[in-house]
Amino acid sequence: MEDSQLLRGVLEGSVLAVISRGEAYGYEILAELERCGFDNLQEGTLYPVLTRLEKKGLIICRKAKSPYGPIRKYYSISDDGKVYF
User: Fold this and answer.
1) Under a CB-based contact definition with an 8 Å cutoff, are residues 68 and 10 in contact?
2) Which end of the chain is more exposed for a tag (fewer CB within 10 A), N or C?
């Protein structure tokens, strides 16, 4: 298995783990993953993972106005995501 495939699988599971603790937006997820050892993880890596998980029906995305600026996307785990996780 290629390293990128392995990272993809580990990253998807890790993102689900973070979101399973409660609704979060991208930067919060990114910060938590970095605290867990995903050094130098970029937004350009995280957001495609979030998109894949949403397309698979494992997470739900809602948009809401942020008190600090533009609209944010908030992610939560779906019932299917709980079963998968």
Assistant:
1) no
2) N
Residue listed under structure tokens 């919060």: 28
Backbone CA torsion sign across 53, 11, 77, 51: negative
Strands (E), the chain: 24-25, 59-66, 69-77
Q: Which residues contact 72 (CB under 8 A, 6 or more apart)?
A: 25, 26, 63, 64, 65, 66
Helices first, then strands: H and E counts in the chain: 4, 3
pTM reported for the whole predicted model: 0.85
